[in-house]
Design a protein that fits this description.
- By secondary structure, the chain is an alpha/beta fold.
- The radius of gyration is 20 Å and the shape is globular.
- It starts with 11 loop residues before the first helix and ends with a helix.
- A five-stranded parallel beta sheet has the order 2-1-3-4-5, with helices on one face.
- Strand 1, helix 3 and strand 2 form a beta-alpha-beta unit.
Length: 297
């Protein structure tokens, strides 16, 4: 299988033995290379047909988490793409890119990141067009948090609109990159972040000063019925959005998801920025990289 180990290492000998017995595998690039050199023959062709292949180019689409916002950057409140779980080069994070690079040196410097802080699903199609122009062989998508948080309007995106926008972007990727694999992350459990941090005075102060998620974090310490209902509505919308991501992705043969792994991931205080108590820090980016890597197997 192309993603055989969560450590980003593949035992060629072990794969050769197991791969010949298994006809199951995921292929990230278009087609599978077959050899016709000195070892050509039925056995060699069979082995080659089951050999894992890895992308030589990739692109990450999404929002602030994917560009490493507030990840222990030299200056707070800035993007640090080097710390991205997807395409970053910080060895501490050990991004998906670095793990793949260890398996395919041809990927070096072909780790585009078209994510942008503050974006919503409405922006994904433009990012998808950028990925097409880069001829990406692997596209990673982490989008939807800002739709639940109200984006620029402080109003959650309607589920039907979210579906149409995601479908449009997937159509763009499928038409422009028919051989690429697209891997979609679920939206995290945002309610769990509020639940974990709303009793921390510094977190409450940060949330009040910069409204990263007004639909969830307005009046963060209030137990008034309206505030409780509003937060519950956000969590329900995240459920709905994640269902849409899974349902739409299932219609495209080369689209896969994390199976809800990002949503189920626990909130660990040490893995979040102490500037905003909302974005993963370097440790959180590293955890996300491992999680995504495991779901790519």
């Amino acid at each position: 299988m192309p993603f055989h180990s969560s450590r980003g290492r593949l035992s060629t000998a072990a794969y050769a033995l197991a791969g010949l017995a298994m006809a199951v595998g995921l292929v990230l690039a278009a087609g599978i290379a077959t050899g016709d050199g000195p070892l050509a023959g039925p056995a060699a062709r069979l082995a080659a047909s089951h050999a894992p292949t890895y992308p030589s180019s990739m692109d990450a689409l999404g929002g602030s988490v994917t560009v490493g916002f507030n990840t222990n950057c030299p200056d707070p409140w800035t993007d640090c793409p080097d710390n991205s779980w997807a395409t970053g080069t910080n060895p501490i994070v050990d991004s998906v890119y670095l793990r793949l690079l260890a398996l395919n040196p041809q990927l070096r410097d072909h780790n585009a990141n078209d994510a942008e802080s503050g974006t919503t699903m409405a922006d994904l199609d433009q990012q998808a067009q950028n990925a097409v122009s880069r001829d990406a062989e692997l596209v990673l998508i982490a989008m939807g948090t800002n739709d639940a948080c109200g984006g620029r309007s402080s109003v959650m995106t309607e589920v039907s609109v979210f579906r149409d926008e995601f479908t449009r972007a997937m159509d763009t990727l499928t038409a422009g990159l028919p051989g690429a694999r697209v891997h979609v992350l679920s939206i995290p459990d945002l309610y769990q972040r509020w639940q974990s941090f709303h009793t921390i005075p510094r977190a409450v102060k940060a949330w009040k000063s910069i409204p990263f998620c007004p639909t969830l974090l307005t009046h963060p310490t209030s137990n008034a019925p309206a505030d409780v209902a509003r937060r519950a509505a956000v969590r329900a919308r995240v459920f709905d959005f994640n269902s849409v991501l899974a349902q739409v992705c299932a219609h495209y043969p080369r689209c896969t998801t994390d199976g809800g792994a990002a949503f189920r991931a626990p909130v660990i205080a040490a893995e979040f920025s102490t500037h905003d108590y909302w974005h993963p820090n370097i440790a959180g980016q590293a955890t996300l990289a491992r999680l995504v890597w495991d779901t790519l197997e």
